[in-house]
């Protein structure tokens, strides 16, 4: 029955209107990359995707397919090692976006990338804390690469509201597991922690800033290099050390940097309001000062036209990294590494399309639907799909591009450049829209029937 349903659902998805990308390989990546709760919240998730049947297909497939993942296979080993178990618990506690893709990496890399994450998350928890006295913060950031070699070190000076403070309170477990990695992994991680800590300390001390604002676009690029581009460098080195990828991946620093820049800059656009409320400001003055005098004006009534133009200018800046990201992904050979790298990138392009010309960014935290995210996760298993997904969202951005916007031409050109790259390097990728077919209506009926069933179960539980 389940198999039948799956086949049926795959057929349904092939007939959805406006569907510009299709899953060409059902190589499954499962595990709780996104945790789907039961009943009412699951129901909300399904309802949010009601107008997107392919997302409902993805959600059901994801929810009901049996667990058979790299991480599940290794849970037993982890359970016998309390320190390692605690590290993976910390990974899932501190990362919504990266925990599951890290846990799904092949054995040769999983622990190294997990520890890389936890070490940099520890460093970032010091950087983000606005309650730490600046001299103390600076000293910690600059010496963190040495601290990670001090067995037993931990830290409880973070402010009570710092979201990941518990990680540093028990940091001795992270250090123990870091020291259990093979030395070549340790060297890569410590080297990146050194460079990132120094970069964060410079910015915390007002370098490259005027008052609290990041000044030039080049300062913005440098900041994103320190906090995310360097992660790209380190990951490429870890891939090479593990032997799962060739050393070539680690040779082109520019494209490794772009992988991080694309993720970090997209987050910085999406998090405008949250950062403003917390007293942080990452958008470069060189961009926003063209539109408003005060950064906070962007969220105020009466500034909508300026705010929209400013948002386009920020999105344009991010789009410049896309060709490098596609080059990077096309070089990868190991399936688990490919999934690990591709999933965050497709989430970012989907987020970029969502924020583009969307003034809600200035009013609330905008997020892609869970159904959309799950669909992207299931599809991001090969380069053909990833390119098709990028094209889909670029097409979406083109459609929303406003001829009256001052950056209209530049955005068109940036998208044209990406298209050109795809046509030159991936000419076989076919992303023609599937025509809407009458058969879809009976499929919709089936989906409605499934939803009615879910409603029924929920209703009976509530009685
Ligand atoms: C392939 C796959 C993943 C990649 C990649 C290539 C290249 C770069 C990155 C991931 C890094 C992306 C960073 C985007 C998210 N931004 C943050 O987490 C900000 O903190 C930056 C400093 C700490 C970086 C920690 C990190 C993040 C992701 C990783 C990783 C390390 C190690 C391995 C894999 C992924 C942001 O933090 C928000 C928060 O506190 O939650 C901030 O403070 O700006
Ligand atoms: Mg930070």
TrEMBL record:
Keywords: Lipid biosynthesis, Lipid metabolism, Membrane, Steroid biosynthesis, Steroid metabolism, Sterol biosynthesis, Sterol metabolism, Transferase, Transmembrane, Transmembrane helix
Main localization category: membrane
Transmembrane segments: 337-356, 376-394, 436-459
One example GO MF annotation: D-glucose transmembrane transporter activity
Subcellular location field: Membrane
Pathway: Terpene metabolism; lanosterol biosynthesis; lanosterol from farnesyl diphosphate: step 1/3
Pfam family, one: SQS_PSY
InterPro entries on file: Isoprenoid_synthase_dom_sf, Squ/phyt_synthse, Squal_synth-like, Squalene/phytoene_synthase_CS, Trans_IPPS_euk-type, Trans_IPPS_HH
Presence of keyword Transmembrane: yes
One GO BP annotation of this record: farnesyl diphosphate metabolic process
Cofactors, names only: Mg(2+)
Keyword Electron transport: no
Purpose: Catalyzes the condensation of 2 farnesyl pyrophosphate (FPP) moieties to form squalene.
Stored NCBIfam families: squal_synth
Identification of the protein by name: Squalene synthase
């Amino acid at each position: 029955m389940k198999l039948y349903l799956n086949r049926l659902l795959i057929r349904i998805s092939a007939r959805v209107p406006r569907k510009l990308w299709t899953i060409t390989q059902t190589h499954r990546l499962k595990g709780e990359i996104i945790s789907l709760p039961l009943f009412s919240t699951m129901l909300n998730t399904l309802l949010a995707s009601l107008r997107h049947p392919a997302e409902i297909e993805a959600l059901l497939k994801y929810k009901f397919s049996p667990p058979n993942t790299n991480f599940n296979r290794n849970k037993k080993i982890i359970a016998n090692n309390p320190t390692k178990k605690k590290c993976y618990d910390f990974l899932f506690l501190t990362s919504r976006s990266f925990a599951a893709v890290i846990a799904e990496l092949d054995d040769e890399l999983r622990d190294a990338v997990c520890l890389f994450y936890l070490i940099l998350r520890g460093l970032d928890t010091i950087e983000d804390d606005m309650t730490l006295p600046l001299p103390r913060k600076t000293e910690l950031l600059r010496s963190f690469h040495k601290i990670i070699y001090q067995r037993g070190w931990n830290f409880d000076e973070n402010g009570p509201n710092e979201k990941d403070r518990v990680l540093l309170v028990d940091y001795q477990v992270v250090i123990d597991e870091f020291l259990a990695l093979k030395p070549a992994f340790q060297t890569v991680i410590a080297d990146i922690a050194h460079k990132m800590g120094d970069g964060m300390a410079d910015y915390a001390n007002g370098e490259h800033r005027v008052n609290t604002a990041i000044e030039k676009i080049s300062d913005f690029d440098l900041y994103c290099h320190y906090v995310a581009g360097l992660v790209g460098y380190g990951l490429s080195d870890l891939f090479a050390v593990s032997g799962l990828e060739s050393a070539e991946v680690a040779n082109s620093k520019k494209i490794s940097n772009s992988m991080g820049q694309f993720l970090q800059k997209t987050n910085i656009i999406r998090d405008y309001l949250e950062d403003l409320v917390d007293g942080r400001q990452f958008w470069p003055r060189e961009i926003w000062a063209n539109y408003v005098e005060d950064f906070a004006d962007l969220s105020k009534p009466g500034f909508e036209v300026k705010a929209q133009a400013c948002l386009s200018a920020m999105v344009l800046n991010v789009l410049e990294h896309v060709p490098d990201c596609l080059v990077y992904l096309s070089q990868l050979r190991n399936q688990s590494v490919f999934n690990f790298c591709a999933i965050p990138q497709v989430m970012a392009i989907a987020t970029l399309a969502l924020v583009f010309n969307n003034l809600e960014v200035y009013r609330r935290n905008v997020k892609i639907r869970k159904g959309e995210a799950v669909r992207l996760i299931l599809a991001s298993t090969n380069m053909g799909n990833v390119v098709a997904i990028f094209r889909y969202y670029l097409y979406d951005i083109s459609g929303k591009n406003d001829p009256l916007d001052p950056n209209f031409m530049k955005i068109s050109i940036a998208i044209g450049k990406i298209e050109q790259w795809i046509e030159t390097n991936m000419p076989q990728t076919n992303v023609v829209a599937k025509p809407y077919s009458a058969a879809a209506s009976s499929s919709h009926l089936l989906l409605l029937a499934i939803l009615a069933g879910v409603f029924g179960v929920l209703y009976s539980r509530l009685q």
